[in-house]
Every structure is written in C-alpha cells, then in structure tokens.
Amino acid sequence: MRNPQGIIFLVLTIVTLALFVSALSRKLRILKLGAPENRFDNPLRRLGNFIMLIPLQGKMLREFYGVIHLFVFWGFIFIVLGEIPLLLEGIFPDLVVPLLGDNPYFYLIKDALSLLVVVGLFIGLIRRWVLKPRRLYRTSEAALVVILVLAVILTDWLVGAAKLALAEGGAVAAFRLTVGYPFFASVFLTGLEPAALAMFRDMVWWLHVFVFFGFFIYIPNSKHLHVLAAPFNGYFASLQPAGAQIPTFDPLAEEVDEYGVGRIEAFTWKQLLDSFACGECGRCMDSCPANLSGKPLNPKKLICRTLKEHLLEKGAVLLRHGLQSTKDLTPERLTELTRLDPEAEVLGRRLVGDVVDPEALWACATCGSCQNLCPVANEHVQKIIDMRRFAVMNEDNYAPELRLAFRNVESKFNPWGVSWSERGAWGKPLAVPLWKEATEPEYLFWVGCAGSFDNSAKKVSEAVAKILETAGVSFAILGPEEKCCGDFVRRAGNEYLFRLMAEENVAMLNQRQARRIVTACPHCLNTLKNEYPAFGGNFEVVHHTQLIWRLVQEGRLQIPAGAAPASPQRVVVHDSCYLGRYQGEYEAPRALFRLIPGLELCEMERHRDRSFCCGAGGARMWLEEDADERVNLLRARQALDKAPQAIGVNCPYCLTMMEDGVKDLAPDQGVEVVDPAVLIARLL
Amino acid sequence: MRIVVCVKQVPDTTEVRIDPVKNTLIREGVPSIVNPFDECAMEAALRFRRDYGGTVVALSMGPPQAEAALRKCLAMGADEAVLISDRAFAGADTLATSFALARAIAKIGADLIFCGKMAIDGDTAQVGPGIAEHLGLTQVTNVQKIREARADYLMVERVCEGGYELVRASRPVLLAVEKTIGEPRYPSVKASVRARRAAITAWNAADIEAPEEKIGLNGSPTQVTRIFTPETRRRSEMLEAATAEGLCDLLLAKLRDAEII
Ligand code: SF4
Ligand code: SF4
User: Fold this and answer.
1) What pTM was computed for the model?
2) Which CATH number covers residue B22?
3) ipTM tops the 0.90 cut
4) In this structure, what DSSP letter does residue A669 have?
C-alpha cells in the first residue's frame, strides 16, 4: 500500500462504489414501480439473443457507424478489465493480477482497442458536431463522455509509459507487445530522472483514478446508463415473432380497472427498461414514416426523452413519498402532497395528454421499422398501442372517424360500413364457392374487408380466385360469414372490439373446420396466423403470393408458353410492412413478378426489411391525415423516382395508398399499381 | 321521472329472405340488431335525459336472446333494462304485443315513452300507437325533434308531407320517432363492458298481470298466413350506341317494337 495514500484510495473506492450502487439501486427501484411482466422464461434463447445483440453487436453492425460502436464496446470492456490491475495497485502495489496484469496479449488487445476507441470517438465527434445528422442530439452529456473516456485512456497510457520508463520489471514484460506505452514513454518521458518519473507516475495514476471514478459514478446517473441497461435489454428482448407481440387482456375481467397505459408506472418494468437501454442512436427516428413525414411522433424522443424524463421525475417523487402508483391517489391527497412538496405536481400530470402528445400516438403506422432497427431491441410499438388503449378504452377520447370505423366493424363487420351480406358479392360473377356449400376444399380463401369491398383490392381477389382455379386448387370463401379480422381495431387500441371479432371469427373458422387458409391481405395474414392462436384458432395461414409461388414450384400452376408480355415492363417493388418485416417474406412477391415474361424488377433504396411504410397500417387507414405531409406521397415519390411503369405491391392497404399517391404525383404517367397475382391472372 | 324506450330486436337485413317452404323469415346466419328506429328513440331519450333529467328504462319483448338488444341500450346509457319474455307471448300480432308492452310500462310507471316509428322487419308502425291507446296516452308519431319540454306538455316537430307540424302534446305522452331525431351514439368501451355485466330485469306474463286471452296468439286478431317476396315484373335493359343519334334510333325502335309508341 502506498501509504498513506493507500488509505485515501481505499476510502475513495468505497465512496465511489457506494455512490455507484446507490444510483443504480435508485434506477432499479424506479423500474420496480412498473407493472410485472414475465421475461424470465427460456434462458437459452434469451442468452442467444443477448449474444447476438450485445457481444456480437448484430444490429449495430448493419450500418457503417456500427463498426465504430463495436470498437468502442469492446474497447470499453478491455479498458475496464485493465482497470483491475491498475486500481489494485492502489492497495497492493506489488500484486500481479493473473491473466491480466502479466499478460502481454491482453495489453496488446487493450492497446489496439484503445487506439481504435480514440479514433472512433474522434469520428463520432466529427459526425455529431460537424456533419450533424438530425438523428443525433448534440448534448453536453454526449460531449462529456467523450472527454472522460479520452482522459481515461490517455492517463492510462501515461501511467504505463512512466512504468516503462522506470523499467519496472512487470511492466516491461507485460507491455512488450504494446505500442501506446512505449510511444508515450519515448515522446514525453525520455531523459527524466527516476524520481521525477516516479512522481509523474503517481500523479497521473491519481489523476486517472479520479477521472475513472468520476466516470464510474457518472454512468448510472446519465444517459450512459445505456451501457449497463442495454445488455439486460438484449437478454429480456421479446421472444415472440414480430407479429405476435401484442398481449391481450380481458376487458370484462373484474380485476382490470384501468385499461391500457395512462400513467408511466402502468408500463411493465421491461417497457421502462427500454428507456434506460436506449443508446440514442436515432436509427428508429431515421426510418419512421410518421417522423419523416413531419408528424409529431419521434420514436427516439419518445423513448429516451419524453417517457424517460417523465419516468425519472415521477419515479423520484413516488419513491420519496412511498407510493407505488398514482392510480389510487385522490385529488385531495395530491393537493396536500403538492403543498408539502412542490415537485409532487408531476403526480398529477396525465401521461396521455400532458406528457405524450396524443397526436404523436395516433401518427404511428405500426410499421415496425423502429423495432426492427433498434440495436438494443426496444419495443416501441406496444407502448404506443398501450397508450392508445388508454385513450380509446379508458378515456373514450379518440378521433370521430375512427369511432365510425369501429362502429362499422361492430355492426357491419367491415370498416367501410357496407352491408355484411354483400361480403361475398365480388365472387358471384366468378362462381366462387361458399365454404358452407363446398365439400372439403383444400384452402379457405380469407378475403378480408378490402378484398371484399375495395374496388382495386377486389381485382386482386378475383385474380387469386382465377389462379387457384387454374391451378386446380379447390378453395372456398366464407362470404357473409367472414368478419373483419380486427387488425386495425387492435392496433387502434380497442382490445374490447378486437376480442369480439377474434372470438367470432375463430368460432366460425373452427365450426367450419378450416385448417389451411390463404389470404391476399398481410394484415389478415398476421392476425389469423399470429394473433388468433391466443383465442383458440390454430390455422396454417399463407399469403397468396406464397401459395402461388409454391404452386408454380410444384408445377401445379403453369404460365402458358408464349403468353403475351404483361403491359408494365419495369416494375418497382414495394414491400408491405406486414408481409415483410412482420412475416419476413420478401421473396415470394418478387419471384411472382419475375415469372412475367420480359418484366424487369427494380428496387427502391428502402426495400426489404428497410422498406418504407405506405402509411396505412396501425389504423392510419381510417384516420385523417394532413394533406401536405402524407406518408403515401413520400413512398410514392420514392417509387416514381425509379421511373417505373408499375409499382408492385402485395397488400390492399399499400394498393390504395400507392394508387392515391400516383394519382396525386403523376396523374398522367399511366403508372399502374399492381399485385403480382393480377399480372399473372392476365396471362392465364 | 321515468322515461321508457321500447326497443325491438330485429334481424339485420335489408333484403328479407323468406324460406319458401316454411313461409318464415330466414334468420340463420343473420345477425340480430336493435331496430334502427328504436336505436334513434334510445338516443332521443338519452338526450332528453341530458336536458331535462330523469331515468331511462329500455324495454323489450322477445325471446331471452333479445337481452342483447337491451345490453346495447344499457351501453348507450340506459339506466335500467326490462325484458318481458314468456312462451305465452309467442305469435303475438301488433295488438297483443302493444298490450303486453303497455302492461309492462304501466308497471314501470313512465310519463314519457319513446318508440321508433316502425320496425324494419315488420314495417307496420302499429305497436307504438297501440301502446298509447292501451294506456290512454297522448301520442305523436313521426317525431323528428323535441323543441322543448314543460311540466305538462311537450312541443315536438312531427314530419308530414313537405314539412313538419309543430305539435303541443300534453303529458304523459308517447313519441314514435323518425331517424332524423338523432344519430345514435357509439357506446364507450367502459359502458359496453358495464352493460355486459349488468343485470336485466326479466318479467313474464304473470309479472305484468297480462291475462292469457290478451297476449300471444290468443290475443291476436290478425295472423300472418304467408310471407313472400313479390315477383318483380320490371325488366331493364341498357342500350349502347356510339353516338347520341344512334342511341335515339335504338330507343325509338325498341319503343315501337313494344307498341308503346
Ligand atoms: S412503428 Fe413505424 S410509424 Fe410507428 S413509431 Fe415505429 S417507425 Fe414510426
Ligand atoms: S430506441 Fe433504439 S433505435 Fe431508437 S435511438 Fe434508442 S437505441 Fe437507437
């Protein structure tokens, strides 16, 4: 022990640890204000997710700057490991920590990573403060951490350099493969007396200790809590498929006395953890159709500013007054609390309305792009749905046009409000059989509301019917027995109505003993396949493009030789969110387009799982949209930039949105919006 | 003050399909709804309650399944719901039906009664007026608006050809309303849930002291012997021609052929 400094160091260490632990436990107690949620099952799969996301930085590496983060991540780990021998010197000056303190390879890696971290931090600085991409916030926190890390690395280099210059035996052996220590020794420390070197070594060591301890305490108290929370978030990431992550609840159950999330502590602890885990990288906002079209929704800001700041503020007050939630807080008690503690005012703030802008909530198309890109596996969409649930189910406060759509679904079983009895009418001219009159057809063709009532989508239904018939696949439709699947109803936060629809449809499908279902609507596909199992409906559901492609591969469907080339020659493909990101199906629609003789396919910059939403999902189809900032125009422009003769789609919503977009942007160019089935049916 | 709204559960169908063999309406696979006119009556009652106070009781006669219609009314905002249901009511025509409903209303004790102007399945528009007659009340049919309510009378607008009449109706009164009286509200989820859990009062014939000879088939001087969809004799044909003259010639030829001109 470097007496008496050893004592001082020991005290300092204890104080630092205490401050670190108390800051961390505060955050944990705040998390524990959240609702329970079981994310402890399946440890092996969770570990797999963790390894992919955290040590391997799987999502980070999907873009160039992710490489820098990889260096910083691993550099950070090695730097912290390097602290172990360095700090222990403060108490046991002669201790050699096995595997670390005497390991030249360890120092080699640490040295190289330190250099990469320095380079990475400078690139980061230039990016953030010179290039200024909109997705990065230029905050003092972001600057401070760079300075702290640089200071940690630099002081470490200098201490090591002094040790080398003093020719301390252990150092000479352990640092023999490094570049940093000899470099600093030769540049700064040549010709110094050993006494001066020793003093320099001790002074810089102390400086290092202060900087590192400061950094250590700073982490759990700042946005850089990210480094501690993100690994847990990786481990606790949802194990459900993207399309099956909306939890249900029974609105009729007695114990549910508040619907949805109307107060921050009504989120589950995992949902709250998302805010701590956020690294503020901004990938989510950079791909958000709502945000890019100028709506007040910014998924990044929602997670790492709006919700997090409110959580910390409200959480602190709740803990201070020994409260778990404000649910049972009477107005009188609140007034009393606020009189004693002015900060208790935060307890009276409404999450939906005062904290989160309802406009932002309703702007989300549930396109899933944010979640798909988030490197720490944050789940943005469910939070939005939870708050919508509160607005719709608890407060009955939502847009009149949505109310009309709900009413239509409830009474006419489709959002347009066309008579339910007309549902099968599109199939009459084609003599499409009704399921209840058919004998054990191979497939049930689930037409969906759009496919039944929307003029453009009906053409797709007709094409699918024609193709199945040509391929000799027996199929039938439910006709008036089919009801809205409830996709948009659920995403609009009306779990009550969704359950009604789900239960009725599942009962009907089970009664009719449907097992294999094909649908032309990716939203129906997702709901039937991923959401109905929770209601006792277990079906094998495929998208029509998947089935048709399979029929082609199996030789059951043949495109007649010498068929006339389809009119559009150059088709730009648009991936729908619900077939793409939610189902992971990108190939089938493309494969079908390629079957058309002479057809040339082209891609937009944002394609496959980076595809940009048409703007209609998540109930957006049924909500008004400001004319000058429409998502469908953004996407249609991206498509038209490729100078196509047609835009290829695979979803009835996309069909409508792209058609509208083309009508607005290029009314005279004759650009078609087509489903591949329609082009194929033309050839038969 | 108690306000009673009479509602009927009807099959939701614009085209009435009739079983050619059994001579009855086909109800299979047809969802049941609250008669749309009655839904408007319900809305009118709720607005009346908002403006003048009172409690709203929804009343229906029908099989036990008709409870669903009453739950809809509860969700919309009715304070109570009463279902009168008894095998003895079966086969009732409008006279027997209005009698039974009148008995129930007498038991509830109301001074304002709302009905839809008619039911979309029977189209008779007789039950509302029938109730008023049985109870000896003032009645106004085809009401499109309540202008104001006073302790002893109501000022209401009654639709008539080319306009409306302003009627001063002394209370107690029965109003049979038009759809224009107000778009029925869409209930909130909480209200729907509460309605699903709510208790519905069920009365049988004995409860409303309805003598056997006045209800059901016994109390019905009329009986439906046959329901059928009339054959439409109208036929239409679209004429197409490239020019207007061509079209005229075609039309003239057709009319001459048919010996119309
Ligand atoms: S789901 Fe799509 S629209 Fe909603 S916040 Fe995420 S990126 Fe934005
Ligand atoms: S939520 Fe995820 S994607 Fe968005 S800024 Fe945070 S870490 Fe990045």
Assistant:
1) 0.93
2) 3.40.50.620
3) no
4) S
